[in-house]
């Protein structure tokens, strides 16, 4: 019997992270999903994964609280041992984050530091520490944004941090390639989830405008992204490395 692959997905309790976890489960991958505040939603995702015949665990994590990472990884080690009888996992998906629309003229140092910790420092150092617990031949997928390619007013802070992650991912691919681990970016465009206060879902005018910019005539859905992450974790994607894959329906071409 083949040993199951295990993914660690940050922010796996809802939206894109939930879709990623379920898509991976459908392809035969088990998951550890993290949540920040909504334990019930994370446990519901675990139940859905288990209903698909896969194993899953939910653990708390604030990706902006870097001092907590050692404790978090100790919890990962316990979960790996108790649930899978192993000490390693295979795939790391850095998905957790928050949205913020802040014009440059209104941005504060507090805003800057908050988004820096969550979207860049947290990703950088969680990845660094996770490498010690990853199997060779694994995958790292960092979630970025379409707004590193095209500009949306108010997204200068968010997109700047994601740009840092995109550069980090290329260096990561270069430095860990000897272990057979690939590192790639998935950059969603506008997605109708509860991200950033469900801005798209709650604003028909915004949704209509974004739809008009997209050749396929709609905004994205979480499942448009989840399947791409599952593909990148598959053997079929083994030769994709150091790439930015935009999943945005061709917006702003």
Can you describe this structure?
The chain is α/β, with parallel strands linked by helices and 253 residues long. A 7-stranded parallel β-sheet has the order 3-2-1-4-5-6-7, with helices on both faces. Helix 1 packs across helix 8 and helix 4 packs parallel to helix 5. The chain has one domain: 3-Layer(aba) Sandwich (Rossmann fold), CATH 3.40.50. The longest helix is centred in the middle third of the chain and has 22 residues.
* CATH homolog superfamily: NAD(P)-binding Rossmann-like Domain
What is the CATH fold-level name? Rossmann fold
Reported for the largest beta sheet, the result is: 7 strands, parallel
**What is the helix tally?**
8
Structural class of the secondary elements?
alpha/beta
- The overall average pLDDT, rounded, is 94
Portion in beta strands: 15-25%
What gross morphology would you assign?
globular
Order of helices and strands: EHEHEHEHEHEHHHE
């Amino acid at each position: 019997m083949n040993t199951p692959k295990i993914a660690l997905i940050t922010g796996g309790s809802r939206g894109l992270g939930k879709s990623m976890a379920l898509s991976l489960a459908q392809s035969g991958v088990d998951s550890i999903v993290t949540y920040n505040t909504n334990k019930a939603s994370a446990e519901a995702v675990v139940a859905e994964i288990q209903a698909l015949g896969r194993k899953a665990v939910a653990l708390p994590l604030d990706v902006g609280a870097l001092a907590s990472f050692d404790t978090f990884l100790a919890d990962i080690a316990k979960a790996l041992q108790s649930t899978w009888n192993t000490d390693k996992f295979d795939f790391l998906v850095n998905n957790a984050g928050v949205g913020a629309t802040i014009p440059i003229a209104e941005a504060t140092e507090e805003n800057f530091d908050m988004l820096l910790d969550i979207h860049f420092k947290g990703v950088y150092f969680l990845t660094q520490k996770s490498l010690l617990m990853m199997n060779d031949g694994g995958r790292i997928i960092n979630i970025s944004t379409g707004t590193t390619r095209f500009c949306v007013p108010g997204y200068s802070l968010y997109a700047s941090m994601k740009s840092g992650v995109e550069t980090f991912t290329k260096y990561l691919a270069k430095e860990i390639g000897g272990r057979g681990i690939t590192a790639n970016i998935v950059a969603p465009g506008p997605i109708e989830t509860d991200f950033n206060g469900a801005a798209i879902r709650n604003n028909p005018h915004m949704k209509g405008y974004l739809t008009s910019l997209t050749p396929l005539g709609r905004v994205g859905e979480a499942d448009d992204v989840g399947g791409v992450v599952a593909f990148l974790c598959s053997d079929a994607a083994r030769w994709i490395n150091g790439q930015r894959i935009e999943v945005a329906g061709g917006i702003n071409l």
